[in-house]
Design goal:
2 copies of one chain form a homodimer.
Chain A lengths: L1 H21 L2 E3 L1 E9 L7 E10 L2 E7 H7 E3 L2 E3 L3 E5 L1 E6 L15 H16 L2 H17 L2 E8 L2 H11 L2 E8 L10 H15 L5 E7 L7 H14 L3 E5 L3 H11 L3 H7 L7 E5 L5 H9 L3 E4 L1 H6 L7 H6 L3 E4 L12 H16 L7 H7 L2 H6 L17 E5 L11 H8 L5 E6 L2 E5 L2 E2 L4 H20 L1
Parallel strand pairs in A: 1-5, 2-6, 2-7, 8-9, 9-10, 10-11, 12-13, 13-14, 14-15
Antiparallel strand pairs in A: 2-3, 3-4, 7-16, 16-17, 17-18, 18-19
């Protein structure tokens, strides 16, 4: 009888818990001991927090103690004294244009485009150019903690291939425009390329292939309708520049009696697949149309400033809870792919422009670079926050560099004090692509060498 | 006879050149093989260039070949594949306020000052606080290639002491204000402190002690006249905030019938010793007054944006060739001491604000951070460019980071693509203070530890 008691004691108090312990769920990766900035609906920030990742998915978010009670992993990353944030979302860029970084500056948009960018593109853009420029941009973005980007360029199939190989996530749109461009010479060719491109990538874990009609002023109504039909048939996003300049609006009103957003609405183009870049010169009625149609918007403060395009009504758009993300635009008009500077600039620009220092708070700026940016790309169900069921796109950021000392408020710290260089480790889709500032999927030296070879070709091409 | 010929041959063709070689002038340091951006009057950029330094002075600037023909040095720094630029000039800051970095954001100036900054200062600012905050700020500035800064705070003697010990150059102004502050309780006390402070430091190689009457709205006319007299007697610069907000202008007009610059002119306050910070809300007539009186101006784009203070008329000031420098302002309203971001922001802000993408070019922005900034501080004879006879304030900058690839134009590259983190080596007054990103005169870990101790005290003080 006594033996039975002892056995019972042993089984209940020792063996049972050990069994529970033995039943810890194995996962592939635990990031632990960091301050986890979830960007979930309650904006939970977890001190001494952890994130458990299984395959490419987040399976748990909690305190390190909680996570270690429930999960076991052969691979852990210690984020002690660091922040763990959702991967940043660059909502608008033209990634191969990194090769044109600084080719021409301090010019008006028309002169810049017609004298430099278009000739340089006509003379230099090939599939190989696109691959080299993409790799350069991917490396710069990963270094800065960007895990998803939304792109519009030529040879987008090559962009997709390089992006997938680097382990980065992208919404990648093949440009459709009503004049001959380096990859496609006619609308029919562009549509055929795009359909093939989308079908090739549509089930990829990292690549969301898209259609990218350049703008309402460079693509005809008929062709925009074709784009919309194809996007519906293939269930693919549509990326388009909208209302970047005052001239675009004036021309649209003169030619079509509608402002650009009104015009797109009038032809039934707008829906929850559309991602509209810039949306600078839009009025309240147009904001309401974008909201009603659930269009995503990509705000590019530094590019808009540099080209003197104007200031988008971001405070008003946030008041109406529009899906606004932050983008860098191409490196030729920025001249970098650094989302930390876009956050900082967005917060500051709208304060001075509106005269109200309370608009676009640090928390709102960080939101635009994460969960709201995910909404802008219509990807809020899979990325943008650290939540169970989302893809494991995590970034570990140093938190005690000189420029980050001392620390008072996490969002202020991230937006106003942290730099791209403070990013330490980047995980995309559960895979570590940068560890302790070392890129694991891209070779920096080869990238620079290839880019510099193109530099020489580009300079020569422009002097002819 | 033949022997004589041989001897002659030997002496003329071998010994004589060797003698010349032996007569190479010894110097203390040669920085060589870099691209030297001189910022001299002709804006010379020297490929494969070098700078020779003797004691604390630049004794030669030229190609590496030229310099090596004329000079010999036991110490050389190889700047191959890098840029050599004049040390950056931060024309306005409050360096100890680094300890308040991020304490309160996204507030209007009045709320921010009265609810957070003034109470935090009243409860925390001591001489030790000032020393700890100064060391933090100095370390951040040196890391970013700033070699001279213009400061206004309390216990400025402690700021001077820390600055001198760190080997940094500063125009350091003790605050004079018509209410009791942490170091001085009355105007008489402040004037006495300032006179003693100036006499103590006036012959120092690095420190230019100054008077810093806070602003025309916080210092009476009589006291401003006292300041002017003391500055003339001691030949010391005067730092003052001018026209930072619209309210300041309105109040000035209401109370004094003059706008702030007009008022200062009317009391005979303005001359070529004055450094005016902000000068945001100034009209053409006031620009002309500043020009006529040779007043230096410090433009702080990021702080002005963040506090929604307004946008200074920099394009107009540059058209009239005013001495405008770039400043970060204090870290509590920025939130960093990073001049690279100020250059980038200055160029972009004025483009979008004026609607003209050609204003404030990259070259002009870089100029404001170097030679024009030196003019703003009335130090253009000793710093701001790499020229013979100037103090040896040199910065070596990496030129091939990913965000800097490829390279087309040197000023565009510096302003739009280079980051503080690309700064590699910093030389001030002929002394290396950072080498290959390692600070040599400051201990980063001690600085962070001390700053974090104050962080805890500050948080506690504000919750009381």
């Amino acid at each position: 009888m006594e033996k039975l008691h002892i056995l019972l004691f042993v089984s209940v108090f020792l063996i049972f818990p050990l069994t529970i312990l033995g039943q810890k769920k194995p996962v592939d990766l635990i990031v632990q001991n960091g301050t986890v900035v979830t960007m979930d609906a309650s904006r939970r920030v977890i001190e001494n927090g952890a994130v458990a990742v299984s395959k490419n998915e987040i399976v748990a978010v909690g305190t390190t103690t909680e996570i270690n009670q429930k999960f076991t992993s052969r691979q852990t990353i210690d984020a002690r004294g660091k922040l763990v944030i959702p991967g940043l979302v660059n909502a608008h860029t033209h990634v191969p244009m990194t090769l044109f970084r600084g080719i021409a500056d301090d010019l008006d948009l028309n002169e810049w485009l017609t004298k430099f960018i278009f000739p340089a593109e006509a003379k230099n853009v090939t599939e190989d150019f696109v691959r080299v420029g993409t790799r350069l941009g991917l490396a710069e973005m990963i270094r800065g903690g960007t895990t998803t980007f939304c792109d519009m360029y030529y040879f987008e199939d090559a962009v997709a291939d390089e992006t997938f190989k680097a382990g980065m996530r992208g919404v990648l749109g093949e440009t459709i425009i009503d004049f001959p461009v380096p990859d496609n010479k006619t609308h029919a060719e562009a549509m055929a390329y795009t359909e093939k491109f989308i079908n090739k990538w549509k089930n990829n874990s990292l690549i969301i292939p898209a259609l990218a009609p350049h703008s309402p002023y460079t693509v005809s109504t008929e062709h925009l309708r074709n784009v919309k039909r194809l996007s519906e048939r293939l269930n693919a996003p549509v990326i388009i520049h909208v209302s970047e300049t005052r001239k675009e609006v004036d021309d649209s009103v003169a030619a079509k009696k509608f402002r650009p957003v009104e015009y797109l609405e009038s032809i039934g183009f707008l829906n929850n697949r559309v991602i509209a870049a810039h949306t600078i010169h839009i009025n309240d009625a147009e904001i309401d149309i974008l909201k009603k149609r659930e269009v995503g918007a990509a705000h590019n403060p530094q590019s808009n400033m540099k080209l003197a395009s104007g200031v988008a009504p971001i405070p008003q758009m946030l008041l109406k809870d529009l899906a606004v993300g932050l983008g860098t635009d191409g490196a030729a008009s920025n001249n970098d792919l650094n989302l930390w500077e876009e956050m900082d600039t967005a917060a500051k620009l709208h304060k001075v422009f509106s005269g109200d220092p309370k608009v676009v708070t640090a928390a709102q700026a960080f939101e635009m670079a994460t969960i709201r940016g995910a909404r802008a790309l219509h990807l809020e169900k899979i990325i943008g926050s650290l939540e169970v069921g989302k893809r494991a796109d995590l970034v570990i950021v140093d938190f005690d560099d000189l420029n980050q000392t001392p620390f008072y408020n996490v969002y202020s710290h991230l937006v106003y004090a942290t730099k791209a260089n403070d990013v330490r480790t980047v995980i995309i889709d559960g895979k570590i692509v940068m560890r302790d500032r070392r890129l694991l999927t891209l070779d920096e030296n080869v990238i620079k060498k290839d880019a510099n070879a193109y530099r020489q070709k580009i300079i020569t091409s422009l002097s002819n």
